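Q: I'm writing up a methods section and want to include an example of the input and output format. Could you take the sequence below and give the corresponding predicted structure tokens, formatted cleanly so I can copy it straight into the document?
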Amino acid sequence: MDFKDYYAALGVAPDADDKTIKQAYRKLARQYHPDVNPGDKQSEDRFKEINEAYQALSDPERRRKYDELRQQYQQWQQRGGRGDFNAGRRQAAPGQQTYTYNASPEDMEDLFGESSPFSDFFSSIYGQSGGGASRRAREARPRRGRDIEAEVEITLEEAFRGTTRGIQIGDRRIEARIPPGVRSGSHIRLAGQCSPGAAGGPAGDLYLVVDVAPHPQFERDGDDLRVTVPVDIFTAATGGEVRVPTLDGAVTLKIPPRTQADRVFRLKGKGMPRVEKPSERGDLYATVKLVLPESLSEAEIRALRELAQARRGEAVTG
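A: Here is the clean output for your methods example:
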């Protein structure tokens, strides 16, 4: 029996953490899922390989057994690899909207109509041959439907106010609500909105994975926002007021005399809503950028020149 390298199947290193393994699986599952590649036998085989690798590596106990077997296989190769490496004999010492489908062993059987979705290699390690009798037993008991992930992109303004997205699931269209303050990478669960369960089991859940697009003016830092505010040199030197943009309208900021470039002003409560408490908000941090007025008269230029000369004279005499 040929040894299967599950790490190579997912394109990850043997010391990859759980998050890396899950990310690799999701990416490959989206690419090779039969629903995306109908009638493509190569994609179907690749999807089976990916799913089998993920089933082995995503469970800590299964991964431990596989790693032990993998080490034994490497030692067998170092000794020359004579004869067959039979995993079965070593069980006593085990060695375009984007969706992600999380396929369980039962889902694989439903997809491909097979008594077992796994290879003999997998079954020899974990004893999951999935014969017909066990399949009939599974069919007789209630089983929940498949979960699906859908990626949605929203603007920062939509994340600020909250928004909705229409999601097409089969022949149904779901209007999903996205709460104010949501961040990139957030998962929003819509219970029971996906595949129906078997034998009276509950329907699967839809998970929205939110991506907040970059904004041309504001930079987000958790629940806080950062923005650069141009301040002319006269206002910076003598003091005055400037208008600062926020996501719910511009506000007035008082600039004290002798304000230096890159000084940061905190505008409390002008950031993003907090998802847990939408009535509370983060802060807005405004960074001063000194600029010359767009047009300077000759008189203003002469005055600035005289001021500069006077400053240089003071420096010399001082």
